[in-house]
Predict the 3D structure of the following.
Amino acid sequence: MNRKKGLIKRLLVSSVALSLALGLSGCGNANKSNGTIAVICQAQGVQFWDQVQVGALEAGDELDYEIQYSAAEKASDIEGQRALIQRAINNKVDGIVVAPNSPSELNDVLQAADTAGIPVITISTTASYSGTKSYIGSSNSEAGAIAARQALTELGATGKIGIVGHSETANNSKDRISGFTTLVNSRNQPTTGMDESGNVVYQSKYEVVETKYSENGTRDDCKKVALELIAAHPELDLIYATNENSTLGVCDAVDESGNTGKIKVIGFNSNDAEITYLNTGTLTGTMVQSPYNMGYLGVRYIDALRNGEVIRKKYDTGAMYVNRQNLGSEQIQLWLDPSRSE
């Protein structure tokens, strides 16, 4: 494939279809002459990271790199991810592309890679270590703000909101929640009313009643957290979820608790199960990112660094809100599946 083929396409659209991901096996594309790049993601069994892998492997094929792909067991698995980064250092790879499971707890091993002369690029979520060469991914706080604007539009005049975060440590989870709550608070002009005694009381127009975090980021655990949230706050009008597993877990909980149509759900990412929930109406809308681009550009940026080129310190791959109304549009379909533009 031509080194430039489809690059503009990838900058305009988000991800490849899951069928492409399932057509690939093994941890990488071996026996490449330019070197080896390790791509290390947050969790196994998540379609978002499968699409990152597809993008990285295609860039590896174009640029003649072996891609060693791996992922921690789950988003809370910091030590497992540390071991994967250390293994990449020990293997003397030529670059590391990583989605950190903690903003700071991996800084020592990221510094070890830097000291060994191995460039590190973060994708999807950031690390506080200053030696990383670039961040490629959505602006998570801005995407959270977009999700909040859509949530308030769905709620109308007033509403009670709950939040289920997929991780209490990863920056992408924290920033998506921060962006969401900051926007809600900025729109939250209080209203006045009367209590039973005739006293004037001030009430929030919109209220985030509770934010809960999954312990391990799995779909089942996010479902458990969402069921607890619903039981504790039967007045909930909307739940906001911060990634693929939390979105699916929340949708599972809303259906199981008999709240489909009563509690709206705003989520993140766009795997097949989420699209199904979107079509059935359990999922009101979801923030779609560009996982394919994160993997693809991560590898290209490592190659550029090795060739002495100057790269951006930050590359925003964008995010788009998708609901049942715009799901069928050509723009959204291209965003979801760039293979349609061939």
Residues 7-138+289-320+329-341 form a domain with the Rossmann fold fold (CATH 3.40.50.2300). The two ends are 13 Å apart (CA to CA). Residues 180 and 186 are 10 Å apart (CA to CA).
